[in-house]
TrEMBL record:
GO terms for molecular function: histone deacetylase binding; methyltransferase activity; zinc ion binding. Residues 593-620 form a coiled coil. Residues 308-347 form the MYND-type domain. Residues 215-232 have a biased composition (Basic and acidic residues). The keyword tRNA processing does not apply. Keywords: Coiled coil, Metal-binding, Methyltransferase, S-adenosyl-L-methionine, Transferase, Zinc, Zinc-finger. One of its GO terms (biological process) is heart development. Residues 215-240, 381-412 are annotated as: Disordered. GO terms for cellular component: cytoplasm; nucleus. This is SET and MYND domain-containing protein 4 isoform X3. It comes from the Eukaryota. The keyword Nucleotide-binding does not apply. Pfam families: zf-MYND. The gene is SMYD4. The lineage of its organism: Eukaryota, Metazoa, Chordata, Craniata, Vertebrata.
Length: 749
């Protein structure tokens, strides 16, 4: 996830800081690589609760007490009573046959059990039973192994071994299954019920062996026939910008900061950037926060239960952290690596990190991954290189002519040879835009970072942060001996870097919450909407479409094509006030904007009713209602209005339901004309419409036209979704089916 991320942000040069009180945390240079979040959390909302007592001039003790109280609402410690409750809930779901729900609950139970305890082994064993029913045999075997390694009770071992043998049989590992059965036989006493199971499995094993002897001929290699291979990817890595295409160059100026520029023509579908995230944090998602006195636990699955907290892969059977109930991983390898890199420090801070929010969490993990030596070097370097102590971006100067002649050598974040690489140095030199953030926001961020650093110091984690020692070494000589509440000089350096990163995140992070097909585009959004979306990045777009609308005051293409037309002469209605006038001077008809908008809403309601009729099988009535809507729309909507295209699409759907393929194709072609007019001939919207048309032509046996439509749809959708997408696969199956028809049929159609 996140392998196509820009290595450098389009940023804006900043000037000075409004608040001198933040001087110890000033950002004197800009920063570096990509930061990926799975979901944008409510960190500002939670943090504001911490800010409120400060506004009311309460004491520092009250501040700390308020923070502790908030942390109690997001507990991350292990609670055996919670484990028992989750395990019982899982048992109930298992008995109902809801194995997926049982799986999640057993995982929650395991996360609350103490490592190495018999109870956690029972959670893994129970989860293996759910995995067996779901057909995940390999993962089931992994959970059985976990149960055995955590001291699964010997008296319960026979049923787990029986489950293991069944998994091995399903996987075709007959010899392994026989070995397990032998162990099982030696471990159990003569028991009627168990003997019945053994007899059944032995017979099944014998049958598998016999079948195996008959099927010793190797199966043909899969993938030789069928399947598709898309066009080879256009990719040649840039020699001076790691992870970037050779079609790009790296530039820097005072207005835009560090940015990428096309140095060659770029074809549709060409990959431009492939870069791993420097740091990633999984946002926990929505959950029910415990209130004071609450004893119940939430059974809903959140992001924290669904994805690995290190590699972000989707979880099936999670490996819990041994120290907290929050962090979960896809494998023991991921758990061990996370512990070594950062979680040994974060583990005991889970409740505080959840309370302060994902931005603080990302900032902390960034400095932990970078290491104190590198953080200190860059922070100190920003101090010495900053000519203006009030300017956090003093080093982010425009490139001189000499710099420009040196290519990317003068770009902040590049190495001494001018080469850009994904690194903490590159991340450090992205712009924090300090002067663009509000004083309240900066104060809130400062409070959050200080609270986190004070907790690091109070919990005795300072040595781990500064030297990244193993936990066994924390109690040795480097353990912090400070008794004062003041942060040590080293932690002040860490705090400065963390606050810098918190401010950078708003305009330099990638928050991945959902995969969307449609994004901001001048064909879909008015200029005001587009500019509003860009405001959080402190960036003003100056593309031709934006400039044309902003400078000339002209209406956007979206507004023009989705306009009302004159009820008398069908010319475009125009005007910014409540009354619209016909653009045809000879007509001079006027109409109320509210009246026309009301007609549009009524029309949309009628279309919805027609679609409801289609859903309940009344296609004939749906056709009549849609045709009536179409006639009504023609009296006050522009022929290019998107709703006109949507009605053509709906009519195509109804006629396809009735098996009238030619009528369906005729209406869909009209829909495609309007979609192309709005979004362009190579847009994803056009691709989807062509996909529908290909299906209709295929079912209507219009072979030649279907083949040409398939080819065009393939070309568009492969650019947007890649050659392995479901729609491309279906198009290629249709093409293969049509191509296999006898030549005389192809010639006739």
């Amino acid at each position: 996830m996140g392998n196509i991320l820009l290595p450098c942000a389009v940023t804006t040069q900043t000037e000075s800081v409004e608040s001198p009180s933040l001087e110890i945390f000033l950002w004197r240079q800009s920063c570096a690589t990509r930061i990926v979040l799975l979901e944008q959390g409510g960190w500002t909302r939670n943090s504001k609760r911490i800010l409120l007592p400060a506004v009311s001039h309460r004491s520092e003790e009250d501040e700390e007490a308020a923070l502790v109280q908030l942390c109690h609402r997001a507990p991350t410690d292990k609670k055996p009573e919670a484990a028992s409750w989750y395990r019982e809930q899982g048992n109930q779901e298992f008995k109902r046959g809801r194995y997926q729900a049982a799986l999640r609950l057993y995982s929650k139970a395991a996360s609350h059990e103490l490592p190495g305890s018999p109870e956690v082994s029972v959670c893994f064993a129970n989860r293996s039973a759910a995995l067996l029913h779901l057909g995940h045999f390999e993962v089931c075997l992994e959970d059985i192994a976990r149960a055995e390694s955590h001291g699964y009770p010997d008296r319960l071992l026979p049923k787990v071994l029986l489950r293991k043998a069944e998994c091995l049989l399903c996987l075709g590992r007959l010899q392994d299954a026989q070995d397990v059965l032998r162990v099982l036989e030696s471990k159990i006493a003569l028991d009627g019920v168990m003997t019945t199971h053994l007899t059944r499995l032995k017979k099944l094993s014998q049958l598998k062996v016999q079948l195996g002897e008959k099927e010793r001929c190797p199966e043909p290699a899969r993938g030789e026939h069928g399947g598709t291979r898309g066009e080879p990817e256009i990719w040649e890595e840039n020699s001076r910008i790691s992870g970037a295409s050779s079609s790009l160059s790296l530039s820097f100026d005072a207005e835009r900061g560090r940015h990428l520029v096309a140095s060659q023509d770029i074809v549709a579908g060409q990959s431009l950037v492939k870069e791993e995230a420097f740091v990633s944090v999984l946002c926990p998602g929505e959950s029910l926060a415990l209130q004071d006195g609450d004893t119940a636990w939430d059974t809903r699955a959140t992001n924290a239960d669904l994805y690995c907290h290190r590699c972000l892969r989707q979880l099936l059977a999670s490996v819990p952290c041994q120290g907290c109930s929050y962090a979960k991983y896809c494998s023991q390898d991921c758990a061990d690596m996370a512990w070594q890199q950062y979680h040994r420090t974060e583990c005991s801070l889970g409740a505080l990190l959840l309370t302060l929010g994902v931005f603080c969490h990302v900032a902390l993990r960034t400095v932990l991954l970078a290491g104190f030596a590198e953080v200190s070097r860059l922070v100190e370097g920003s101090h010495h290189g900053d000519k203006n102590p009030q300017s956090p971006e003093g080093n982010c100067r425009p490139l001189s002519e000499a710099d420009a002649g040196a290519g990317s050598r003068g770009v902040p974040g590049c190495d001494s040879s001018g080469r850009y690489q994904s690194s903490y140095q590159a991340l450090f030199h992205l712009l924090p835009h300090t002067e663009h953030h509000s004083p309240e926001h900066k104060f809130l961020c400062t409070l959050s970072v200080v609270a986190l650093c004070k907790q690091l110091q109070a919990a005795g984690l300072e040595a781990a942060v500064l030297s990244q020692e193993s936990p066994q070494q924390w109690s040795k000589a480097k353990t912090c001996e400070k008794t004062s509440d003041e942060l040590s000089p080293e932690l002040k350096t860490v705090a400065e870097a963390m606050l810098r990163h918190v401010l950078q995140l708003q305009c330099n992070a990638q928050a991945i919450t959902v995969m969307q097909e449609l994004g901001p585009h001048w064909c879909r959004m008015r200029v005001a909407e587009r500019q509003q979306l860009l405001s959080q990045y402190f960036f003003k777009c100056r593309c031709p479409a934006c400039l044309e609308e902003l400078e000339s005051g002209a209406k956007s293409v979206v507004s023009i094509r989705n306009s009302f037309c004159c009820p008398k002469c069908q010319a475009q209605m125009q005007g910014e006030e409540d009354t619209l006038c016909c653009s045809n001077e000879a007509c001079a008809t006027s109409a109320s904007r509210d009246h026309l908008s009301g007609r549009l809403q009524d029309l949309q309601q009628q279309i919805k009713k027609a679609l409801d009729l289609l859903r309940i099988g009344k296609a004939d009535q749906a056709v009549k209602m849609l045709l009536k809507c179409q006639m009504d729309a023609g009296t006050f909507l522009s022929p290019e209005h998107l709703l006109m295209g949507e009605m053509e699409d709906h009519l195509a759907q109804v006629y396809a339901t009735l098996g009238k393929w030619q009528e369906a194709a005729r209406h869909l072609k009209k829909s495609i004309e309007i979609v192309e007019m709005h979004h362009g001939p190579s847009s994803v919207e056009t691709g989807h419409e062509l996909f529908k048309l290909a299906q209709i032509l295929f079912n209507g046996f219009a072979v030649s036209e279907a083949l040409s439509t398939i080819q065009r749809a393939e070309g568009i959708l492969s650019v947007h979704f890649g050659p392995q997408s479901a729609q491309i696969q279906e198009l290629q199956e249709m093409k293969a089916c049509l191509s296999e028809l006898p030549r005389n049929i192809l010639q006739r159609t």
